[in-house]
Amino acid sequence: MVLLSAPRWLRSRLTDRFWRVQEVLKYARHFRGRKNRCYSLAIRSVRRAFVKSTKARREKKRFLRALWITRIEAASLEHGLKYPSFISNLLKSQVELNRKMIADLAIYEPKTFKSLAALAQRRRQEGFLAALGDGKEPEGIFSRIVHHC
Amino acid sequence: MAAAANGPRRPPLHRPSQGSASASRRCGGPGAALPLPSAAAGAAMASYTKAAQQWATFARAWYLLDAKMQPPGKIAAATVMRLEGRHKPIYHALSDCGDHVVIINTRHIAFSGNKWEQKVYSSHTGYPGGFKQVTATQLHLKDPTAIVKLTVYRMLPKNLQRRTMMQRLHLFPDDVIPEDIQNNLLQEIPQPRVVPRRLDEYTPEEIAAFPKVWIPPKDFRRR
After folding, report:
1. pTM score, two decimals?
2. Least packed by Cβ within 10 Å: which of A8, A112, B77, B120?
3. Which of A71, A80, A111 sits opposite B89 (nearest CB)?
4. Torsion angle, CA of A97/A99/A105/A107, rounded to 10 degrees?
5. Domain spans of chain B?
6. What ipTM was assigned to the predicted interfaces of this complex?
């Protein structure tokens, strides 16, 4: 009997179950209901949460760009310009700032944004003059294209 | 311009210059990864503590809008922008950055076309046979603020913050505003529609000076 029971006493048993469970539960602590406490419910919710988080990384880029555009629109309306004309005239003036930087400038550097808005407004006027002005007016200054080699 | 035209009852409100309102906006939205404020901020900013700057940036303002002879849709579009906070560069849907809007003279809104007779507002009391349909005229006579209120409610985003934003909307059918609201008002929103002058608002000299297409002879008689 002793010879048969020794292997039974020496079999390997899981000793760190607590920490394996905690690894999952730590991601579920802010959930609602029993799935923040009970492992079987939590593992399902945590898996779904991770899948949603992975898929949402692509949506986040779209969401943030829309937010930047809303903020730029608000700031440019303060200066009397609408967003489409602001962005298009900035691009025509070869100002290659992306929407993230322009939105941050609008919040933290209002004077810089004001000068950007003035630049876009001036380029807009030059565009109108070039289109409607019968060619008698001189070419615009901000309409000049600079070629960087 | 609209403030002065309304007569002595409402004094013109202070109109801050363009861009100065944005000078106080130096702090970002909720938890978004915004860069640190630049060290080259103006000298005026250096005298404020960070807490005071944050308070001033996210403070709620009160705006006034005169709805006299204005289409309710355009009124609602302007108010919804302010109620949501989309007129601020620090806008975020979750940061509760909307302002208060006070609309006066809602009794004198002006629908274009035949909408006073043709536009129908429907509702149901919940009881069988309780489907009610009223024209815009009937609703306006029953409650002069209801049309603007419904228009704004339907233009706001359909989320849980809509009710909060509606609580920040204040409608008055006439020029009369309570004292405490009047003391809060900061700025007037320009009217969306340019109101044309009526014929009796032109002076006889202007009418005489207006160019005529043709002058009928003295013995001209229509059939």
Report:
1. 0.82
2. A8
3. A71
4. 170
5. 59-111+143-196
6. 0.83
Beta-carbon separation of A74 and B37 below 8 A: no
CATH code of the domain made up of B59-111+143-196 = 3.90.1180.10
Q: Is B86 on the interface with A (CB under 8 A)?
A: yes
Contact B90 A107 (CB under 8 A): yes
Q: To the nearest whole percent, how much of chain A has pLDDT over 90?
A: 78
Q: Measured between alpha carbons, how far is B89 from B201 in angstroms, rounded to an integer?
A: 41
Q: How many CB atoms neighbour CB B222 within 10 A?
A: 4
Mean per-residue pLDDT for B66-82?
A: 97
- 3-state secondary structure at position B16: coil
- Least Cα separation, residue B78 to chain A (angstroms): 12
Task: Give percent of chain B with pLDDT exceeding 70.
Answer: 80
C-alpha dist (Å) from residue B106 to B3, B14, B175, B188: 16, 23, 9, 16
Q: B187 at the A interface (CB within 8 A)? A: no
Inter-chain touch B92–A113, beta carbons under 8 Å: no
Q: Is B100 on the interface with A (CB under 8 A)?
A: no
